[in-house]
Every structure is written in C-alpha cells, then in structure tokens.
C-alpha cells in the first residue's frame, strides 16, 4: 500500500503543497519488506497491521522479523563492518556518510513527517520537528566523530602511552513508538559514527519510519549489511537481539519494567547497556513565577505529544499562596486546547498512538477518581462526533492532596496532569523527589538563587528553568533512579559505543632488565 492509495481526502490534508510521492521508489514506504543484512525481503514473522489512530483505519500491513533474522543481521553486521572497512574507515570518511544521511533526511522532511503522523497520530508540526532533529543529530555526530581525539597520557617509564577508542562491533538498538525518527537517530547515528554495525528493532506500533531511514542510509552510501531493521514483537525479536552473543551492546528506550528485564540479560552476558526509561516528572511553580510563561510551559510539557512523552511534566506542584489562581488559569487554557487529527495545522492535541493505549489511560484516570482524585477538566474520551473515530482523550487535570496517591507515582503516558499544593522549599523537595523516577523537572520562578538551589536538590537527569521539553543533541541526556542507566547525546554519548584501549609503545629500544638477556647481564 502506498501513501497515494490513502486517497484524495487524505492527501488534501497534507498542508505542504508538495507531492507526497516517494522520491526514491514509488510505494517504497509501505512495502511489505524488512531490511536484513543489506537485503530487503518479506518478513516471515507475525503480521503487523498499522492503524491510523485519527481514523481507526488500517493503512498498511507488514510481516515482521523472526529470531532467525536476528542471527542473519548480526552475522552480516559483523562481516560488513570488517569487510566493508566501515570500522576502520577514517573518521572523516564515516562523517561524510553521516552528513549525507542528514542531508537526505532534511530533503525528505515532509515525507518522513507525513509517514510518522499517519503511523503515530502526532501533529505534522511535531513530526516535522522530529525529522529535522534527526537530521541535526546525524550532522552533529558527523562533526563530533571527525574531531574526536584520543589522548597521549603522561608516561611513567620509557614508553609512549596512549588512550584510544575503537568500535565495539554490532549494536542492538531497541526503541519505543512515541518519537520514532528522533529515537532512531539518537542511537543509530552515534553507533554508526563510532564505526559499529547496528541491528535496530522499531516498535510494532510505529515501524515504518525506521524502515524509511534504512532506505535513506542506503542511498547515502552506508555499506550494505552495516544496518539492519527488524520490526517485530519485543518478546521475540527484541529478546533475541539482547541475548545474541554477537551483540556487543544494547541501547534501549522504553518502559522501566522492560528495561529492568533487559538489564538482567545484559548482566548475565556482562554486556554494557544504555537504558532510557520512564518518568513522572515534577514541574514546580513558585509564587514569584511569570504565570503566563508557566501556564504555557506546563501545558506544552504535559499535553503536547498528547502526553506520550517520557519527560512529560505530569506532577504540577504549585505554591499554596497562588494555587487557586494558577490552577484556574491552567484549567481555562487547557479547556481551550484544540483537539484534532495530526494533519490539521490547528491541532494542538492529536490522537493517542493506539486505541488500547487510550483506553489504558482512561482506565487509570477512572481509577484515580475512585481513589479520591478530583477532575478539574477533561477526564474522559471526547464526545464530539468529529472525533468519534479517533483514539482521542481530553487533556485532563486532576487535583489530589497527597503525592503518595498511586496516580502521582505511576507513569500514565497520556495527556493527564496532576496538580498538588506545596508550602515551602523543603516540603516541595521531599514531595518532588518522592517517586521511583528521576528523569526531568521544570522550575518556574524569577528568583535565580532559588532556581539553582532547587535544581541541585531535585533527583532528575534534566532540569529546565522557565522552559520545558527543550533539547540539544550536544547536551547529554540521562535518567536517574528507575528512569535509566547511562547517557545518550553529546560526545560522551558517542564514546558509549566505543571500547577504550590503552596502548604502550617502548621508546628505550632495550630488553626489559628482568629477563637478564645476554646484553644486560
Ligand atoms: P516498551 O518498554 O513496551 O517497549 C519499548 C521497546 O522495547 C519496543 O520496541 C518493544 O517491542 C521492545 N520490547 C518489549 N519487550 C521486550 C523484551 N522483552 N526484550 C526486548 N525488547 C522488548 O515501551 P513503549 O510502550 O514502547 O514506550 C513507552 C515507554 O518508553 C514509557 O515508559 C516512556 O517513558 C519510555 N520512554 C523513555 C524515553 C527516555 O528517553 N527516557 C523516551 C521515550 C519513551
């Protein structure tokens, strides 16, 4: 099935004025093919039915991979990095390929964004931004790889000592459905840039854009076999990747329970693993905050992407002196948010990725209400007829008095914010840190010494002050506590796909004295 087979009605909603005909091969986006060891072939695994969450209609089907494909992909990946010379290619030569991948992504932003919007429901403005960010990631990694240096370390004898970095081999990349092209780029670009092969497993709910990225990598001149893309279920294909003895490292983004299970397997193999996991991030409004800025930032932080974001600022702590005024403003602004399909440029809150996920979010809210949470807005599936066919959920604000309520402790991964009052800094820090997660935090205040104090006191990998959900590929990203293990992005993120090696080179030109050879006796 191709994009154009979706019909004129769909195409009329693509607001770009550009053709959506694929630039490389007509219909390539939805070909029923997976990418194993440099070859496109029909999968023999279970059938994936891709549903447009704004209409409930199946727009494409794909046969997924099976465990045997993992063996093929890893074996070919190992050969490919060696035989193609990818691992030994000079950094500026690898960088040239990454630059071309970035340029091709940029040239195809509309194509990629449209594909991802159909697959995930997200707004086109968001999927365009994700595609541009993926291009920027490849360019950043290209520049960083080309300029990375090893070290000549201070010597303690007659030898030259060096610290160098080498590729690891084949990297397993396992990603979730919420921001596919950006998650892929964040893992695949540094892993390739470091000279590795990659076996990528995209999620069942959003496999297409990763397959499209593989076609772009092929066009950019990435040697055959260096990248494989194996869509399929996590419990079979994903599990086989993590357990495979030829996989040197796994980089995973997804839920905390899944990440913990993968970490056990990695421990058995003594294999490094990077985990980017779930969150329940606090966002904090002090009485001296610019309230317009805070309302806009908090809404963006929790309701953009329909709340399907690991860093969603889902616990909103408001100083008691402004609690009523601030919450009223937040509720009024939230009620005015525009719901609709991701293809409509007016849409702020698009459908959720899948009906079953929407229903889980709805059930969690219902349960919270039974346990005493008060619904300040939303709290239900919208009843507007125009939204009846999509996986929509109203942006919701719940009020609870106590951060120990289950709804304050569990990740919802939907458009649901919980407001809680606080009295002073120590009460706030105790409550904000009272969760198993430690991913992100937002602070809204004009008192900068206070912003500094609280930023240091909160257990989170990222803290935003008077802004939220802003990212830079050059700035490391990591989660504390149950939110993750290891770091992505930045130069350290690239190094995490390399083995460090120390080399000692003798400069004396003499046998070591201990051996007492004829010359030194
Ligand atoms: P998930 O854990 O269900 O799945 C993530 C990926 O892991 C999918 O590709 C899935 O098929 C695969 N998988 C599942 N079981 C597996 C197994 N046993 N072995 C190997 N692979 C397996 O998560 P999800 O529902 O796709 O994504 C939502 C979660 O991701 C949320 O918890 C969210 O917070 C988290 N997330 C975290 C970040 C971050 O950077 N910290 C970013 C985005 C999403």
List the helices and strands and how they pair.
Layout: H1 8-12, E1 34-36, E2 39-41, E3 47-52, E4 57-63, H2 67-83, H3 91-107, H4 109-120, H5 124-147, E5 151-153, E6 159-167, E7 170-174, H6 180-193, E8 197-201, H7 208-219, E9 227-229, H8 234-243, E10 247-253, H9 256-269, E11 273-276, E12 282-285, H10 291-303, E13 315-319, H11 323-335, H12 355-370, E14 374-377, E15 396-399, H13 406-409, E16 416-422, H14 425-433, E17 437-438, E18 440-444, H15 448-457, E19 462-465, E20 480-481, E21 484-485, H16 490-495, E22 498-506
Bound molecules: nicotinamide-adenine-dinucleotide (NAD).
Nicotinamide-adenine-dinucleotide is lined by residues 174-178, 201, 203, 234-235, 238-239, 242, 253-255, 258, 261-262, 276-279, 310, 411, 413, 439, 479, 484.
Brief digest:
38% of the residues lie in helices and 20% in strands.
Question: Which descriptors would you attach to this protein?
Answer:
521 residues, alpha/beta, Aldehyde Dehydrogenase, Chain A, domain 1, Aldehyde Dehydrogenase, Chain A, domain 2, 2 domains, six-stranded mixed sheet, 16 helices, 22 strands, 20% strand, disordered N terminus, binds nicotinamide-adenine-dinucleotide
């Amino acid at each position: 099935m191709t994009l154009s087979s979706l019909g004129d009605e769909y195409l009329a909603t693509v607001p770009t004025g550009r053709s959506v005909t694929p630039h490389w091969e007509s219909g390539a986006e939805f070909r029923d093919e997976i990418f194993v060891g440099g070859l496109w072939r029909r999968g023999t695994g279970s059938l994936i039915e891709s549903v447009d969450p704004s209409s409930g209609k199946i727009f494409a089907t794909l046969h997924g991979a099976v465990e045997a494909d993992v063996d093929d992909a890893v074996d070919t990946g190992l050969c490919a990095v060696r035989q193609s010379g990818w691992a030994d290619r000079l950094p500026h030569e690898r960088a040239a390929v990454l630059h071309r991948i970035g340029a091709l992504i940029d040239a195809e932003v509309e194509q990629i964004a449209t594909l991802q919007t159909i697959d995930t429901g997200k707004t086109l403005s968001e999927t365009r931004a994700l595609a541009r960010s993926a291009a920027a990631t490849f360019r950043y990694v290209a520049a960083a790889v080309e300029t990375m240096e090893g070290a000549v370390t201070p010597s303690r004898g007659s030898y030259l000592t060096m610290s160098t970095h080498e590729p690891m081999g084949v990297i397993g990349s396992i990603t979730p459905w919420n921001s596919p092209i950006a998650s892929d780029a964040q893992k695949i670009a540094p892993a390739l840039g470091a000279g590795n092969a990659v076996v990528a497993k995209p999620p069942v709910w959003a496999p297409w854009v990763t397959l499209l990225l593989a076609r772009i990598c092929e066009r950019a001149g990435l040697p055959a076999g260096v990248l494989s893309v194996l869509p399929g279920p996590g419990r079979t294909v994903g599990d086989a990747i993590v357990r495979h003895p030829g996989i040197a490292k796994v980089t995973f983004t997804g839920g905390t329970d899944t990440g913990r299970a993968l970490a056990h397997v990695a421990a058995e193999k003594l294999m490094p693993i990077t985990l980017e996991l779930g969150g329940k991030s606090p966002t904090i409004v002090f009485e001296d905050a610019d309230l317009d800025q805070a309302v806009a930032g908090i809404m963006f932080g929790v309701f953009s992407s329909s709340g399907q974001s690991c860093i969603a600022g889902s616990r909103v702590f408001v100083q008691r002196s402004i609690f009523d005024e601030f919450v009223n403003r937040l509720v009024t602004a939230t009620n005015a948010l525009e719901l609709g399909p991701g293809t409509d440029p007016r849409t702020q809150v698009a459908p959720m990725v899948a009906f079953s996920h929407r229903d889980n979010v709805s059930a969690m809210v219902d349960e919270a209400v039974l346990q005493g949470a008060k619904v300040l807005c939303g709290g239900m599936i919208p009843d507007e007829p125009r939204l009846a066919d999509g996986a929509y959920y109203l942006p919701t604000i719940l009020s609870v008095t106590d951060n120990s309520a289950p709804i304050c402790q569990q990740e919802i991964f939907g458009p649901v914010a919980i407001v809680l009052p606080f009295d002073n800094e120590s009460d706030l820090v105790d409550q904000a840190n009272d969760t198993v997660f430690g991913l992100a935090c937002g602070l809204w205040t004009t008192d900068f010494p206070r912003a500094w104090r609280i930023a240091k006191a909160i257990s989170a990998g990222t803290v935003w002050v008077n802004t939220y959900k802003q990212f830079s590929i050059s700035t490391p990203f990591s989660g504390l506590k149950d939110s993750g293990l290891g770091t992505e992005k930045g130069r350290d993120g690239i190094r995490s796909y390399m083995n460090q090696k120390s080399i000692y080179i003798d400069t004396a030109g003499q046998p070591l004295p201990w051996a007492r050879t004829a010359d030194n006796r």
